[in-house]
Write a structure and sequence with these properties.
By secondary structure, the chain is α/β, with parallel strands linked by helices. The chain has 13 helices and 13 strands. It has helices at 13-26, 41-51, 69-82, 96-99, 110-125, 173-182, 193-208, 236-249, 257-279, 283-289, 292-297, 304-316, 331-345; strands at 2-6, 30-33, 56-59, 62-63, 87-92, 132-133, 138-139, 166-169, 185-187, 219-222, 225-228, 300-302, 321-326. The protein has an eight-stranded parallel beta barrel, surrounded by four helices. α1 runs parallel beside α13, α5 packs parallel to α6 (173-182) and α9 (257-279) crosses α10 (283-289). The longest helix is centred in the C-terminal third of the chain and has 23 residues, at 257-279. This is LLM class F420-dependent oxidoreductase. Its EC number is 1.-.-.-. Residues 7-320 form the Luciferase-like domain. It holds the Pfam family Bac_luciferase. GO terms for molecular function: oxidoreductase activity.
């Protein structure tokens, strides 16, 4: 089992890089740099590439609407170069609130755009003279669009790898099936091992049937909160605001992916109440409604023996990477948690 974590995207690059170097020595395998509506992920990834030597570096996630497919490919190739082949291209659609509310770009056709973007990226990395006439992207622009002066080009530089691993963040059945078909990795959110096959299994199997053999087995990146100890039960409360935000506030009624997921996990009544309160502006009350058991289900919080059992459950459900969120106040405590987790995973 590999271990990863995401850095704080609202913090400073210098402080994050110093901590990541310590985490690398503690046994961390991969670090994710989020990109929401903060500093861009690319700047931090380039900075971390210079400060680390073994660690994989992943965008977590690079939003597919905010860059052209070719710029995404160029950026990934550049990050793979400065990291000596350690980059993982994490992609996702994000959601309408960020894409339309912050970027001013229509949030449309996420599945079709994701497929086409990946196909274009892989053509760029193979240094093919780029021609692509898809439903959503046309390169070069067809006659009658633009000036008519665009000609097929290929990437000037030679990438370190012509197949940079692609990781898709996906929840809906069609998105999950697409990840299993075309990506090297899949990143769900709030992964519940005992319910994973019931919720995601059919989609994963449908995608796997179309999967090219050269992609290899699908890596599955779960993201549990992490706290190890005999008296860590109160830390369950630290996870609840995030669950309340996503289940209650990420979208309107009937258009919230995370509410749907919680419902499929068997927490439908609770999800409805969380959403009702959150959308009414009662965020604290919504947080209080989040069940302790839901937090336990999707986290690694408890004594070492219990956490080891939960790691086995995640592995049994197909997880290959634990992209943990350590519940610790200081860098030193986070490093200690990763060292403990490394021992339990080995």
């Amino acid at each position: 089992m590999r271990i990863g974590l995401s850095i704080n995207y609202s913090g400073g690059f210098t402080e994050a890089a110093a901590e990541v170097a310590d985490l690398e020595r503690a046994g961390l395998d991969i670090v994710f740099v989020p990109e929401a509506y903060s500093f861009d992920a690319v700047s931090a990834l380039g900075y971390l590439a210079a400060k680390t030597s073994r660690l994989q570096l992943a965008s977590g996630i690079m939003q597919l609407y905010t860059r052209t497919p070719t710029l995404t490919a160029m950026t990934a190739a550049g990050l793979d170069f400065v990291s000596d082949g350690r980059f993982v291209l994490g992609l996702g659609a994000s959601g309408p609130q960020v894409i339309e509310g912050f970027h001013g770009v229509p949030y449309d056709a996420p599945i079709g755009r994701t497929r086409e973007l990946i196909e274009i990226c892989r053509k760029v990395w193979r240094r093919e003279r780029l021609t692509y006439q898809g439903k959503y992207y046309q390169i070069p622009l067809p006659e009658g669009a633009g000036t008519g002066l665009g000609k097929p080009l290929k990437l000037i530089n030679h990438p370190v790898r012509e197949r940079i691993p692609v990781l898709l963040a996906a929840l809906g059945p069609k998105n999950v099936a697409l990840a299993a078909e075309v990506a090297e990795g899949w990143q769900p959110i709030f992964f519940l091992p005992e319910r994973a096959d019931a919720v995601f299994g059919d989609a994963l199997r449908a995608g796997a049937q179309k999967r090219a053999p050269e992609l290899g087995p699908l890596d599955v990146y779960a993201g549990p909160a992490l706290a190890i100890g005999e008296n860590v039960e109160p830390l369950l409360d630290f996870v609840k605001p995030m669950l309340a935000l996503y289940i209650g506030g990420m979208g309107a009624k009937g258009k919230n992916f995370y509410h749907t997921l919680a419902t499929k996990y068997g927490y439908g009544a609770e999800a409805d109440r969380i959403q009702e309160l959150y959308l009414a502006g009662k965020k604290d009350e919504a947080t209080q409604v989040v069940p302790d058991q839901l937090v336990r289900d999707v986290s690694l919080i408890g004594p070492a023996g219990y956490v080891k059992e939960r790691i086995a459950a995640f592995a049994e459900a197909g997880v290959t990477v634990l992209n943990v969120a350590p519940l610790a106040a200081t860098p030193a405590e986070r490093v200690a948690l990763i060292e403990q987790l490394r021992t339990l995973c080995d």
